Amino acid sequence: MASEPVNVSEFQELARQALPKMYYDFYAGGAEDQQTLEENVKAFHRIIIRPRILVDVSRVDMSTTILGYNTSAPIMVAPTALHKLAHPEVATARAAAACGTIMALSFTSMCTVEEVASSCNAVRFFQLYVYKKREISALMVQRAERNGFKAIILTADTPRLGRREADIKNKMISPQLKNLEGLVSTEVHTDKGSNMEAFASRTLDASLCWKDIGWLKSITSLPILIKGILTREDAIKAVEVGVAGIVVSNHGARQLDYSPATITVLEEVILAVRGRIPVLFDGGVRRGTDIFKALALGARAVMIGRPIIYGLAAKGEDGVRRVLSMLKDELELTMALSGCCSVKDITRRHVMTEQDRLH
Ligand code: FNR
Questions:
Q1: How far does residue 335's CA lie from ligand 1's centre (Å)?
Q2: 261-317 pLDDT, tens per residue?
């Protein structure tokens, strides 16, 4: 691609060219038939924006708060593993900070929480996996807390790793996870397929359940968000166990294929939660219009997964900055062209879903 990328999809192509196939496939891939992977993006295309005209939009303010923390726009960096296969996590952290964006650091990051914390001053959240050896997860929570992370995002959709066939074919390596150095060995030797999968099945605690939220609360004073909610039933349970927020997510379609595209279940969750806790959203966000649609359906903010990695792989820290800036610019323009001066102005009446068209 000779010219500079003008949108997130073009960054994806640059990343594909820049990365070894094994790593690109790991980042880009989804589970099994990748039906949900495709739908996560396509379901956005079926939602139509209802713009309002003759509104004074000479000033558009995208700023908002997430768990009480100010952010330049309703956009966050989703927790994604293994940035250093492309570029170290500290680069992502610096870019997020420069854009006034909250980053969620993955438990399975290749830089340590300490390295990320000392890379620059910013509000950051820490994503948690619960391991069979609970003391490892507890220690990571303490380290995140000690290093100024402001919330714990418990990923609850991964009792086992989804079946990612590209990783199986490529015999995806299980890289050094500096964050977990000394706590767990990433040495796995399987000639059967994905070493990541073998590592995950050795470590992840498949017995994790709702009562364990009590345990997590007992070991941290940080607010807890549950990531991976896709149904009203689980949204209600999350409110009942008293977490600070939830993330509507299907893990970027990397876990259960044929689980719903996240944007199609957002409203169900919003209606169940009834404003009692904030609802974040991720999956398939590639445009400012996608962010606008998620906000119109009730999300407090969206998290961006793959596009951040594509920016990172293509152009390092600057690439992440540019991806975030592109999405922010696109959202700002969408707001202006829809007659919304602030995120509070974006309402349910600004979008028409497939459901709406049926009724
Ligand atoms: C992820 N995701 C993820 N989630 C999590 O809770 N912990 C993790 O370590 C990871 N790792 C990870 C790696 C890669 C390469 C991807 C693509 C995704 C899921 C992530 O947080 C988020 O839910 C999705 O990425 C959102 O979908 P999009 O934006 O990638 O479409």
A1: 27
A2: 999 999 999 999 999 999 999 999 999 999 999 999 999 999 999 999 999 999 999
Closest-lying ligand 1 atom to the alpha carbon of residue 157: 6
Q: Based on the residue annotation, tell me whether 189 is a catalytic residue of this protein.
A: no
For the residues of 51-63, what is the DSSP string, one character each? Answer: ---S---SS-B--
Query: Which residues does residue 159 pair with via DSSP β-bridges, in sequence order?
Result: none
3-state secondary structure 179-234: HHCCCCCCCCCCCCCCHHHHHHHHHECCCCCCCHHHHHHHHCCCCEEEEEECCHHH
Q: Point out the annotated binding site for FMN.
A: 79-81, 106, 127, 155, 227, 249, 282-286, 305-306
List helix spans (H) across 46-101: 89-98
d(Cα 58, Cα 79) in Å, to the nearest integer?
Answer: 35
Return the structure tokens found at 111. Answer: 């830089």
pLDDT tens track for 232-254? 999 999 999 999 999 999 999 99
Q: Judge whether 18 and 313 are in contact, CB under 8 Å.
A: yes
Record the pTM.
Answer: 0.97
Identify the segments of the chain with pLDDT beneath 70: 1-2, 190-191
Burial code (b: 16+ CB inside 10 Å, e: under 16) for 276-292 equals ebbbbbbbbbbbbbbbb
* Positive/negative CA dihedral, 17, 333, 303, 316: positive
- Contact, 178 vs 253, CB < 8 A? no
Q: Which atom of ligand 1 is nearest to the CA of 282?
A: 26
How many whole angstroms from 141 Cα to the centroid of ligand 1?
Answer: 19
The partner residues of 253 in beta bridges, in order of sequence, read: none
Cβ of 293 less than 6 Å from ligand 1: no
Q: What is the DSSP string of 314-345?
A: HHHHHHHHHHHHHHHHHHHHHHHHHT-SBGGG
* Pair 126, 152: CB distance under 8 Å: yes
